[in-house]
Every structure is written in structure tokens, then in C-alpha cells.
Amino acid sequence: MPRKPRISPVGIAQHIIQRGNNRQTCFTATQDFEAYIGWLKDYADKYQVDVHAWVLMTNHVHILCTPQADNAISLMMQSLGRQYVRYFNHTYRRTGTLWEGRYKSCLVQSEQYLLNLYRYIELNPVRANMVNDPAEYPWSSYQINALGRLSKLCTPHAIYLAIHQNPDTRKAAYRALFKHHLANKLIEDIRLATNKGMAIGNDKFKDEIELLTGKSIRPKKMGRPAKARAKSLL
């Protein structure tokens, strides 16, 4: 079966997840996390991708980013994936694949869902019971977006900047968003859209993307086509 073509309009944010093959460990030491983040910065710059939020878990990665050029995210992820596999195999004297096929992604409606994607990504270690507070986890963007730690990788999205014009007030308001966990339904919607390569947003947003790209970003309806059902009744 041919691969489903990716839909990646310039200027539209995307949520990306890449898992280790069979959920195997991809990061085992501090140097692994540091190497991946360093190459993510290099290739994001090279291919013109703005990275807004991320988390590196032991066996998978989440990234929220916006492409500023055609095919930018695919080029970034392909280069990053190959580079890191070479490093990992050499460091740990292994061979073969590391990642579980192609990365998964979904388009994100900025106005209504972007900050929820920030939260979904940066709360990952909390949901996994690795930490009690996202600030305790060093391999995510939370300390940057919520606490002001400097980063050459992170590019604030316009929606994040619009929280407040004063940086300190903005960070305080951002931290307040994390006092409550995401609703289970929203988590399920994000996971479904990402795994299926669709979009998280309202119908108007999805209509606009389908008109722009000429491709469907909604799940196919289950069951036989209407014509087939009609014929069966004859």
C-alpha cells in the first residue's frame, strides 16, 4: 500500500511524534538527549522550521513546530533521524533501525488548540509519572516557556506571545495553564489526529486546509459506500 502523502502547508503548526522501534529506548544518557537537541536545532535552522515546544522521553519524542518553507519538516526529521541513528549505533555498538517507521504528525489550529498542544507535550513526563511537576523534567521546553530559561532552539509562537506583552506576566499566565490537566477527550483527539496524520481543529479550520491542499484531513466514514448499500437493497 502506498504511503499517505503528508500535508504540510507553510505557516501551519504541526505536532510531531516519533517513537522508538517496538518502543525501545532511544535515550539512555545525558549525552544522548543533548546530542538530539543539538541536531534538532541545527536542522531546524537549516530547513527553516520554527520549534515552539518539545519533550524527549526515553522511547519517543514530541515536537510542536511550524514550517516556514515547503517540505521543511520532512527534510528536518529525515536528516535528524538519520544523524541520531548513526550516533546511537556508533555509541552503543549496535546496528539496525532505531525509529518506528516514519514520524507521525497532525496539523494544529493555532487559535483554539496551540496552547493545548504546548501543555500536552510538556505534561508528558507528568502523565508518565516520571515527575510531579513539568519544571522538574530537564528534557522539555517547559523551563523555557514557563520559567524563562534561555534557549537557542525555541522560537515562541505568536499565540504564545499574545498571552501577554510583558514577559514575566506571560510566563506566570503560562504556568497557570498547567494547574489543571488536559481533559481525557482532548488527549484522545490529539493522539488520534497525530497517529492518523489528520488535523486538530474545528470544522472551519479543516475546511480551509482541505481547500488549500485539495486533500482530506478527516477520518474516513466507516461502512460501505452509499451506492453499494443502495444496490444491496434492490
Walk me through this protein's architecture:
With 234 residues, this protein is of the alpha+beta class. Helices cover 44% and strands 12% of the residues. The chain has ten helices and five strands. The protein has a five-stranded mixed β-sheet with strand order 2-3-1-4-5, with helices on both faces. Strand 2 (49-56) and strand 3 (60-67) form a beta hairpin. The longest helix is centred in the middle third of the chain and has 20 residues, at 72-91.
Short overview:
By secondary structure, the chain is of the alpha+beta class.
**Main beta sheet:** 5 strands, mixed
Uncertain segments are 228-234
Please provide the ordered H/E string of secondary-structure elements: EHEEHEHHHHHHEHH
Number of domains: 1
CATH 2nd-level architecture: 2-Layer Sandwich
Which CATH class applies here? Alpha Beta
User: Between the first and last Cα atoms, what is the distance in angstroms?
Assistant: 33 Å
Write the CATH homologous superfamily. Answer: Transposase IS200-like
pLDDT average, as an integer?
A: 91
Q: Looking across the biggest beta sheet, what order are the strands in? A: 2-3-1-4-5
- What count of helical segments does DSSP give? 10
Strand content: 5-15%
**Helical fraction:** 40-55%
Radius of gyration over C-alpha positions, nearest whole angstrom? 19 Å
CATH topology: Alpha-Beta Plaits
The number of E-state strands comes to 5
Name the structural class. alpha+beta
Query: What is the approximate shape?
Result: globular
